Amino acid sequence: MSTVQLEPSAALAGLREARPDRVTIVVLSGDMDRVMAAFIIATGAAAMGMQVTMFFTFWGLNAIRRRGTASGARDWLRRMFGWLNKGGAELLPLSRFHFFGLGTGMMKRVMQQHRMPDVPELLQTAQDLGVRFIACTTSMGLMGITKDTLIEGIDQLAGVTTYLAEARQGSVNLFI
After folding, report:
1. What is the distance between the alpha carbons of residues 144 and 169, in angstroms, rounded to a whole number?
2. DSSP characters for 50-99?
3. How much is the pLDDT for 1?
4. Is 87 strand, coil or helix?
5. Of 10-24, 43-57, 99-113, 135-149, where does mean pLDDT reach its minimum?
6. Are 103 and 94 in contact (CB under 8 A)?
7. pTM for the complete prediction?
8. Residue 130 phi/psi, 5° resolution?
9. Strand order in the sheet with 132-136
10. Is the predicted pLDDT of residue 110 greater than 70, yes or no?
């Protein structure tokens, strides 16, 4: 039995020459571990030459909100909601074992010890690889999030029909 070894750069070049597949990822969760998984999949697919679109909706919008920005809502209820629902890729909690930040801090420390990129680094890598970011306008309206409270580099503010048009052409569609 023989094994075949592929040179990574040759394998990537071969993938780029092939017709690129499309991947869409709906990011609903604002939990650090789930958002991290979404960015790892997105960057992996983009590195393989696939066209990747990430659609951020509801709590997932927190991953692409600027840290420390206040809600732009006019009514007090959504302003209060925005105040309680702080955004920023650096501030996302774990989905389990958060324990008022202790679990999240422990996870970040372990990731750092193993030289694993955190969510802000993965987000920047995704942008560098050309991953397309769409922020859901319906969720933005409900949560009092405005365009100026989002990070730079959001490709489009759009609704579900735009996502569905992207997903229709996708060969891989994920919901995280």
Report:
1. 31
2. -EEEEEE-GGGGGGGBPTTPPP--SSHHHHHHHHHS---GGGPPPSS--G
3. 56
4. coil
5. 10-24
6. yes
7. 0.81
8. 85, 20
9. 156-158, 132-136, 51-56, 22-27, 172-175
10. yes
